[in-house]
């Protein structure tokens, strides 16, 4: 498979100028799906503007100057997605990947101390042979916990890179949430009610802003208020 794709064919979730370069790098398989992520080289070159060419961006990454979720990344094709933390300590740059009101991924400034944690959505849960609870998250993590109350759809606040669970934010009424899919993608709101279906259809969420969406489109941000600001823009 080609490592590149034409700029006009790149995923619509990438907030990047589409007519400056003919080719855009293709993200490799990784913790985020290609259609919901941005290759690290694109962030360095087109978003942070730390280089003018892909070669310069690749050199910056290869020298170990860029961290994602607290770890140095040297792979320029590494996919970076929603809620990931990007840090370039040498430049004093600390960013979190959010969604703006148009549903596009953007990098929001965060203070250095906030670069030590991230929010992850629980996408799966099972019991291991040893009796431990194994949690799968939206960014490809597998986390072992003894907290049996954690459910699919909840959000965990974890430390990075060691992924220690700091807080659990349940998917429940009155919680602050990010809409990460559907026509209201990028909206920050609160849950008025959760409608539980008795069929094969997904449960739905009614927001305080008078719209409904499915539970899979919801990302919990905190218990009563958001732990992070919206992407804006």
**Which sequence of strands runs across the widest sheet?**
5-4-7-8-9
Largest β sheet strand count, sense and barrel closure:
5 strands, antiparallel
Q: Roughly what fraction of the amino acids lie in strands?
A: 35-45%
Structural class, by secondary structure, is mainly beta
Number of domains: 3
Structure, described:
The chain has helices spanning 40-47, 54-62, and strands at residues 4-6, 23-25, 37-39, 67-68, 71-72, 79-81, 85-88, 93-99, 105-109, 117-127, 133-137, 142-145, 155-159, 165-169, 176-179, 188-195, 204-207, 212-214, 218-222. With 233 residues, it is mainly beta. The chain folds into three domains: 5-114, RNA-binding S4 domain (Structural Genomics Hypothetical 15.5 Kd Protein In mrcA-pckA Intergenic Region, Chain A), CATH 3.10.290.10; 116-169, OB fold (Dihydrolipoamide Acetyltransferase, E2P) (Beta Barrel); 175-222, no CATH class. A hairpin with a 4-residue loop joins strand 11 (133-137) and strand 12. The longest helix is centred in the first third of the chain and has 9 residues, at 54-62. It starts with a strand and ends in an 11-residue tail after the last strand.
What is the fold's blueprint, element by element?
Elements: E1 4-6, E2 23-25, E3 37-39, H1 40-47, H2 54-62, E4 67-68, E5 71-72, E6 79-81, E7 85-88, E8 93-99, E9 105-109, E10 117-127, E11 133-137, E12 142-145, E13 155-159, E14 165-169, E15 176-179, E16 188-195, E17 204-207, E18 212-214, E19 218-222
Antiparallel strand pairs: 1-2, 3-6, 4-5, 4-7, 7-8, 8-9, 10-11, 10-13, 11-12, 13-14, 15-16, 15-19, 16-17, 17-18
